[in-house]
Amino acid sequence: TLDVKNPIELAKQATINELNKACEAAIVGGFDINLESGEVKHIDLTLQDQINMLAITSQMAVLPKETYTFHFKGEADSLISDAVMKSIIFRSNNWKNYYLSYFNALKNYVNSLSDISKIAEVKFGMEIPAAFCSPSYLEAKELFDHDIGRVLVNE
Protein backbone atom coordinates (compact mmCIF):
# COMPACT_ATOMS: atom_id res chain seq x y z
CA THR A 1 0.00 0.00 0.00
CA LEU A 2 1.04 3.56 -0.67
CA ASP A 3 1.97 5.66 2.35
CA VAL A 4 0.32 8.99 1.47
CA LYS A 5 2.19 10.72 4.29
CA ASN A 6 5.58 9.82 2.78
CA PRO A 7 6.56 12.34 0.06
CA ILE A 8 9.26 10.04 -1.31
CA GLU A 9 6.75 7.23 -1.82
CA LEU A 10 4.33 9.67 -3.45
CA ALA A 11 7.07 10.91 -5.79
CA LYS A 12 8.01 7.35 -6.71
CA GLN A 13 4.39 6.42 -7.45
CA ALA A 14 3.81 9.55 -9.53
CA THR A 15 6.99 8.89 -11.54
CA ILE A 16 6.14 5.22 -12.04
CA ASN A 17 2.64 6.19 -13.22
CA GLU A 18 4.13 8.58 -15.79
CA LEU A 19 6.65 5.96 -16.92
CA ASN A 20 3.83 3.43 -17.29
CA LYS A 21 1.83 5.83 -19.49
CA ALA A 22 4.89 6.46 -21.65
CA CYS A 23 5.55 2.74 -21.93
CA GLU A 24 1.97 2.06 -23.01
CA ALA A 25 2.16 4.87 -25.57
CA ALA A 26 5.42 3.48 -26.99
CA ILE A 27 3.93 0.01 -27.35
CA VAL A 28 0.62 1.15 -28.84
CA GLY A 29 2.37 3.63 -31.15
CA GLY A 30 3.93 0.69 -32.91
CA PHE A 31 6.72 0.77 -35.43
CA ASP A 32 7.62 1.14 -39.08
CA ILE A 33 8.80 -1.76 -41.15
CA ASN A 34 10.82 -1.64 -44.33
CA LEU A 35 9.78 -4.12 -46.97
CA GLU A 36 12.30 -5.33 -49.53
CA SER A 37 10.19 -3.56 -52.14
CA GLY A 38 11.34 -0.32 -50.51
CA GLU A 39 7.92 0.45 -49.06
CA VAL A 40 7.71 1.59 -45.46
CA LYS A 41 4.61 0.45 -43.60
CA HIS A 42 3.44 1.30 -40.09
CA ILE A 43 2.06 -1.18 -37.59
CA ASP A 44 0.13 -0.03 -34.54
CA LEU A 45 -0.03 -2.26 -31.49
CA THR A 46 -3.30 -1.24 -29.89
CA LEU A 47 -4.95 -3.92 -27.81
CA GLN A 48 -7.17 -4.78 -30.78
CA ASP A 49 -4.11 -5.04 -33.06
CA GLN A 50 -2.45 -7.39 -30.56
CA ILE A 51 -5.60 -9.52 -30.36
CA ASN A 52 -5.73 -9.68 -34.16
CA MET A 53 -2.10 -10.83 -34.31
CA LEU A 54 -2.79 -13.47 -31.69
CA ALA A 55 -5.69 -14.72 -33.81
CA ILE A 56 -3.46 -14.86 -36.90
CA THR A 57 -0.77 -16.69 -34.89
CA SER A 58 -3.37 -19.26 -33.82
CA GLN A 59 -4.56 -19.60 -37.39
CA MET A 60 -0.97 -20.11 -38.57
CA ALA A 61 -0.52 -22.94 -36.08
CA VAL A 62 -3.80 -24.70 -36.87
CA LEU A 63 -4.36 -23.99 -40.54
CA PRO A 64 -1.23 -22.58 -42.19
CA LYS A 65 -1.76 -20.66 -45.42
CA GLU A 66 0.49 -19.01 -47.99
CA THR A 67 -1.03 -15.56 -47.39
CA TYR A 68 -2.84 -13.76 -44.59
CA THR A 69 -5.00 -10.66 -44.49
CA PHE A 70 -3.34 -7.85 -42.59
CA HIS A 71 -4.16 -4.18 -42.02
CA PHE A 72 -1.29 -1.71 -42.08
CA LYS A 73 -2.10 1.65 -40.49
CA GLY A 74 -4.15 3.89 -42.75
CA GLU A 75 -4.46 1.33 -45.53
CA ALA A 76 -6.99 -1.15 -46.83
CA ASP A 77 -6.44 -4.77 -45.95
CA SER A 78 -3.46 -6.39 -47.66
CA LEU A 79 -2.63 -9.98 -48.42
CA ILE A 80 0.85 -10.71 -47.14
CA SER A 81 2.95 -13.84 -47.29
CA ASP A 82 3.36 -16.30 -44.48
CA ALA A 83 7.02 -15.31 -44.12
CA VAL A 84 6.23 -11.58 -43.85
CA MET A 85 3.42 -12.26 -41.36
CA LYS A 86 5.80 -14.29 -39.19
CA SER A 87 8.31 -11.48 -39.34
CA ILE A 88 5.65 -8.91 -38.33
CA ILE A 89 4.58 -11.06 -35.39
CA PHE A 90 8.20 -11.59 -34.34
CA ARG A 91 8.92 -7.85 -34.50
CA SER A 92 5.69 -7.01 -32.66
CA ASN A 93 6.63 -9.36 -29.83
CA ASN A 94 10.14 -7.87 -29.69
CA TRP A 95 8.69 -4.37 -29.58
CA LYS A 96 6.31 -5.11 -26.73
CA ASN A 97 8.76 -7.24 -24.74
CA TYR A 98 11.48 -4.64 -24.98
CA TYR A 99 9.31 -1.80 -23.71
CA LEU A 100 7.84 -3.90 -20.89
CA SER A 101 11.32 -5.03 -19.81
CA TYR A 102 12.61 -1.47 -20.06
CA PHE A 103 9.73 -0.17 -17.94
CA ASN A 104 10.24 -2.86 -15.28
CA ALA A 105 13.97 -2.11 -15.04
CA LEU A 106 13.27 1.62 -14.83
CA LYS A 107 10.61 1.02 -12.16
CA ASN A 108 13.11 -0.97 -10.10
CA TYR A 109 15.56 1.91 -10.42
CA VAL A 110 12.92 4.43 -9.27
CA ASN A 111 12.03 2.23 -6.30
CA SER A 112 15.69 2.16 -5.25
CA LEU A 113 15.91 5.95 -5.00
CA SER A 114 15.41 7.91 -1.78
CA ASP A 115 15.98 11.46 -3.02
CA ILE A 116 12.97 13.28 -4.50
CA SER A 117 15.14 15.33 -6.88
CA LYS A 118 16.74 12.13 -8.23
CA ILE A 119 13.30 10.55 -8.63
CA ALA A 120 12.14 13.60 -10.59
CA GLU A 121 15.08 13.20 -13.00
CA VAL A 122 13.93 9.76 -14.13
CA LYS A 123 12.40 9.98 -17.60
CA PHE A 124 11.17 7.42 -20.09
CA GLY A 125 13.86 6.92 -22.69
CA MET A 126 16.80 7.50 -20.38
CA GLU A 127 19.57 4.95 -20.11
CA ILE A 128 19.08 2.62 -17.19
CA PRO A 129 21.99 2.32 -14.73
CA ALA A 130 23.77 -1.00 -15.24
CA ALA A 131 22.91 -2.27 -11.75
CA PHE A 132 19.22 -2.27 -12.72
CA CYS A 133 19.61 -3.94 -16.10
CA SER A 134 18.26 -7.42 -15.47
CA PRO A 135 19.31 -10.31 -17.72
CA SER A 136 15.80 -10.34 -19.25
CA TYR A 137 16.02 -6.61 -20.02
CA LEU A 138 19.49 -6.97 -21.55
CA GLU A 139 18.27 -9.86 -23.72
CA ALA A 140 15.20 -7.90 -24.83
CA LYS A 141 17.36 -4.84 -25.56
CA GLU A 142 19.85 -6.83 -27.62
CA LEU A 143 17.07 -8.36 -29.69
CA PHE A 144 15.34 -4.97 -30.04
CA ASP A 145 18.55 -3.19 -31.09
CA HIS A 146 19.33 -5.94 -33.60
CA ASP A 147 15.79 -5.90 -35.03
CA ILE A 148 15.35 -2.14 -35.62
CA GLY A 149 15.63 -1.26 -39.29
CA ARG A 150 15.83 -4.85 -40.39
CA VAL A 151 14.30 -5.46 -43.80
CA LEU A 152 11.52 -8.00 -43.95
CA VAL A 153 11.64 -10.93 -46.32
CA ASN A 154 10.21 -10.65 -49.81
CA GLU A 155 6.45 -10.46 -50.09
Strand and helix layout:
Layout: H1 7-29, E1 31-34, E2 40-43, H2 47-62, E3 67-70, E4 78-81, H3 82-112, H4 116-121, H5 135-147
Antiparallel strand pairs: 1-2, 3-4
Short précis:
The chain has 155 residues and is mostly helical. 57% of the residues lie in helices and 10% in strands.
Please give the number of β-strands: 4
Instruction: Return residue spans where pLDDT drops below 50 for at least 5 consecutive residues.
Output: none
Beta-strand level of the residues, as a percent range? 5-15%
Q: Helical amount among residues, as a percent range?
A: 55-70%
Sheet with the most strands, sense and barrel status: 2 strands, antiparallel
Helix-strand string: HEEHEEHHH
The whole-number mean of residue pLDDT values reads: 89
Total count of helical runs of at least 4 residues: 5
Distance between the termini: 52 Å
- The strand line-up of the biggest sheet is 1-2
Protein structure class: mainly alpha
What is the alpha-carbon Rg in Å?
19 Å
Bulk shape: elongated
Task: Characterise the protein shown here.
This protein is mostly helical and 155 residues long. It has five helices and four strands. The chain has helices at 7-29, 47-62, 82-112, 116-121, 135-147, and strands spanning 31-34, 40-43, 67-70, 78-81. The strands form two sheets. Strands 1-2 form a two-stranded antiparallel ribbon. A two-stranded antiparallel sheet has the order 3-4. Helix 2 packs across helix 3 and helix 3 (82-112) crosses helix 5. The longest helix is centred in the middle third of the chain and has 31 residues, at 82-112. The protein is elongated, with a radius of gyration of 19 Å. The protein starts with 6 loop residues before the first helix and ends in an 8-residue tail after the last helix. The mean pLDDT is 89.
